[in-house]
Amino acid sequence: MWRCTGPRWSGGGPEPEGRFGQRLGWYCAERGAERTSLLPAGKTLAFAAQGERRCLGVRRAGRWIVCPYDAVLDGASAKDQCARCAQLDRSRSVAADTMADDPRPYGVYLAYFGPGLLKVGITAAERGAARLVEQGAVAYAWLGRGPLMAARRAEAVLGSALAVPDRFTKSAKRAARGALPPVVDRVAELARLHARARDPELWPETLEPVEFACTDHTELFGLDRIPGVVAELGGMTAGAEVVGEVLAGVGSDVYLRLAGEGEGPVQGVGGVVAVMDARVLSGWVLGAAGGRVTTVPVRAAVAGVGEREGGGQEGLF
Known about the structure:
The protein is α+β, with helices and mostly antiparallel strands. The chain is built from six helices and 19 strands.
C-alpha cells in the first residue's frame, strides 16, 4: 500500500536549479520502498483519498521509520505526523535547537516572496537552493557562509537589525504571487537589503561574506501561469476527489485548473484555478478518481491570514 509523503522537489545540493522539479513522494511500508511522481505543467491529476490518513512516522538517515502508533491524522491539516512522532523528530533538529553539534557549513540567505516580504534564513550549504525552493521563495540571494552557530547568530542579528521577520503566512505568500512586480524591481529590493546587511557595524566577523547575486524562480515555478485571482482547495476527507490540470508549482503549493464543480463559496468551479497545499495529501492512500469533478471543498482565497510556515531555521531534512 503506497501512501503519499507529500510534495518533494527533485535535485538538491549544488546542482543546477534547472534540474529541480515538483513531485509527490510515495512510501510503501510493507516493501520499505519509496518513489516519486512528477507534477509538470499540463499534467492531469485525478485522484481520490482512500481509507484513513495515517501518520508517516519519522525520517532518519534517508529512510522512513514507521509510526509505531499507526496514528490517524486530521485530513485538513498540513501536518503529516502525530504529536509523538513530531516530538521525536524535533529531538534531532536544527530548528528545535537540538542539533547544535552539526559540523556542516551553513549558508545565510535573503529570500524574497513579494514586495515587502523578505526574510533572513539559514540552510545547510550542501543542500544548495533546495530550502529556498521548498519555501516557495520567488527570488533569493546569499549573504554569507560559516559554521552553524555563526550562521544562527548572523540570522538573529541581521533579522533584528534589518527589521525582517523569520517567516510569513502561507496566505500572504500566495497573495503576493498574484501581483508580483517586474524581475528588475525584485532584484533591486533584494540588492538594497543585501547592501544594508553588509554594513560593517552589523556584519558578524565569523561569517564569510558572499557578493550579491540574485536568483529568480519565475521560470522554475511557472509564476507567469498563475492568475491574479486564485481559489483555494480545502482539506481531504475519505472519498474526496481532486480532478484538474497542473498549471504551476510553488513550494508545497500546486496550482490546478479544476474540472467539474466544488462546494463552498466558489460555485461552478469548472475551469477555475485553485491552489492546493500538497502537504494535505501526505499520509493518504490516493486512488483513481471515480468521477470527473472535484469534490474537495473550494473556497475563495483570504489574504493575510493562515498558517505560519517557512521558518528561518533549517530542520534536519
